[in-house]
Specification:
The protein is of the alpha/beta class. The protein is built from 14 helices and 17 strands.
Amino acid sequence: MKIQDKKPIDDLVIIIDFGAQYARLIARRIREQNIYCEIKPHTISAKEITARSPKAIILSGGPDSVHEKNSPKIDKDIWSLNIPILGICYGMQLMAQEMGGIVEPGEKSEYGSTQINVTKENKLFEGLQEDLVCWMSHKDLVKGLPEGFETLARSKNIPIASFENKEKKLYGIQFHAEVTHTVWGKDLLENFTSEVAGCKKTWTPESVSKMAIRNIKKEVQDEKVLCALSGGVDSVTTAVLIHKAIGDNLTCVFIDHGLLRKNERQEVENAFKFFNIELNVIDASELFLSKLKGITNPEEKRKIIGESFIRVFEDFSKERQDIKYLAQGTLYPDVIESFDPKGGPSSTIKTHHNVGGLPEDMKFKLVEPLRYFFKDEVRKVAIEIGIPEEMAYRQPFPGPGLAIRIIGEITNEKLRILQEADEIVRKEIESTILEEEVWQYFAVLTDLKTVGVMGDGRTYEHLCAIRAVTSVDGMTCDFPELPWSLIRKMSSRIMNEVNGINRCVYDVSTKPPSTIEWE
């Protein structure tokens, strides 16, 4: 059992996802209020919700129409749970239809900035102006109110832009309060969670770190734990939390899988000396690289790496004989992106090696104290529990390492090329004042070769991509507009100093539609 299968904190908001591109953004907005929330699929039952005792429910938007034959619905018993519910866009339309209202296609789709007018005093719009500009994105709209509901706001084209059933605490908004284009949307969401639902702002670094330590003690008790340490903030924070809970019953293992950045192993070993925690370093590069030989499919790479990690940990635990738990620095984005499209809140973006890549016959019980945390929340907890700032804000590095930054088959030669190119990118960006503004930066070795000319001779070598992103939690990202002089310098150094590369490009893709990593 994972520790976080239980509700990790008293006040909980459940977000029911209908396949919305903004579902994760709703979660971010609630977490920013210091209120805990989780995203759940629309298939969640009323019984499952009751077991979690949430203070509020938010229904997300979605790409479907409530009139479509197989459009997503929710368990009808959820409407009778006497829990405050806010429906956003599709969520509002579904609420109206299920409650007996009228939902019809609009005369035309409405997308973009729209002015609405608040028509009735209410808790949802409390403290806001009567005339507000919001972001709309919909085809259907509510034409007739269900019994017991009243209109709260309207726009030029929409007679019912928001409604409420005050007695049942059911609310709907046709616009998207979670996006930045609705500037005051965060205030409306806070009115719903705090004023309507009475949620307390208990999701703070101090409270959640104490909660995590308390839960670890309760779950693990006197058993021993092996912590998979990568050297990143997630695994280090996991290790320190568990050490505070169970002391020397924790042992950390760092696996050199041969897919590390240049000098990564030495840097991790030196940095971890700060903590009085046992660290074992295992060189398993030959095992990993042999299993990855000839593999080009990125999903297969991730699963091979995930299983190989577990097998190495299992071999280590046999020597100790009494280790029952494996601790991982799994984060909420890992969980969300690895969900099956039929059972989870969103499509499977990629299988994270520490979630969907784990073997079914694994002997360990998992301890994942950060499983429902976003990256920025982990950093705050890290500072709270005494982790040095340079470690707390260390650049993220994926568990599969350079395996997902080498497109195609992984070879020793490709690893050498990428390690050298990646070091140049990191050193050049770290030497500028831009480092604090850029969330992640690295090189990618593509499987594409191009014709070049060096020393009056023809070359046919790899294309290297330089990737840099700005982000808060890794769920979305943008690319920074790096100075051309910096891009030129990185490109020039890579092509002149790294044998095997004769062309460089700068990746100008956002997430979505792209992901941060290339595989």
